[in-house]
Amino acid sequence: MRGRTHARTSTAASITAAIVALGALQGSAADTQNVELTSTPSKTCHGTRPTGSLTDPTGEGIPEETPTDRTLGYVDNLTAGRHSAIFTGLVLDEDAKAIDIYRIPSAPFDTAVCATAEKGVTVRFHDRDINEKDLTALLDLITEDMNRWDGTFNLREAGLDGTGHITIGVDDPGTAEPILRKALGERNAKYLRVEYAPQAYLQ
């Protein structure tokens, strides 16, 4: 399966950012990162809206070429608006023409998304207990002062993975993970994924 996270410029109510080098939060709709889907959907729906019929709240058409991209464009509008407080992240499964959405359970949000999915698009919902805004706040605690980790480990990458986790790339995961877990506290440590990342070099 080919998966990718979807990202745009990082804000408190934005679609989750792709994993970014050296802890700098940045992104655009073109930024992608392969991720592993690690949960079973709590709900699935299949699009019924005729192809190409979606419009955004301003009345303007969404020009993306495929049904999946057009559906994703509308989901962007929903998650940046009244449903931002329950949205955690999403991952595109391009091979299956599916969108995996991670959110705090919300029947109104699920209904709104399913009502806008085009024919041929599958939407899979996954339950989470934290939203994107709060995950970004935790990420900021780790990355806002890069020098705080000097002498313990080398922080090389940091970002949200789209599935409700913070992925941290370091030189020594065995050393870094307990330090990071202590810094965030046990309540928040469950959102961490600490892994090895090679040193980045400027080309």
Could you characterize what this model shows?
The structure is a single chain. This protein is α+β, with helices and mostly antiparallel strands. Helices cover 26% and strands 22% of the residues. It is built from 5 helices and 9 strands; from the N terminus they run E-E-E-H-E-E-H-E-H-E-E-H-H-E. The strands form 2 sheets. The protein has a 5-stranded mixed β-sheet. It has a 4-stranded mixed β-sheet with strand order 2-7-8-9, with helices on one face. Strand 7 (155-160) and strand 8 (166-170) form a beta hairpin. Helix 1 runs antiparallel to helix 2 (107-116). Residues 6-37 have low confidence and may be disordered.
Topology:
Layout: E1 3-5, E2 20-21, E3 43-46, H1 67-80, E4 87-93, E5 98-103, H2 107-116, E6 122-127, H3 132-143, E7 155-160, E8 166-170, H4 173-184, H5 186-189, E9 192-196
Parallel strand pairs: 5-6, 8-9
Antiparallel strand pairs: 1-4, 2-7, 3-6, 4-5, 7-8
Helix pairs in contact: 1-2
User: What is the helix content?
Assistant: 25-40%
* Cα Rg: 17 Å
The number of helical runs is 5
Which spans have pLDDT < 50 for at least 5 consecutive residues?
6-37
Distance between the termini: 31 Å
Summarize the structure.
The chain is of the alpha+beta class. The protein has 5 helices and 9 strands; from the N terminus they run βββαββαβαββααβ.
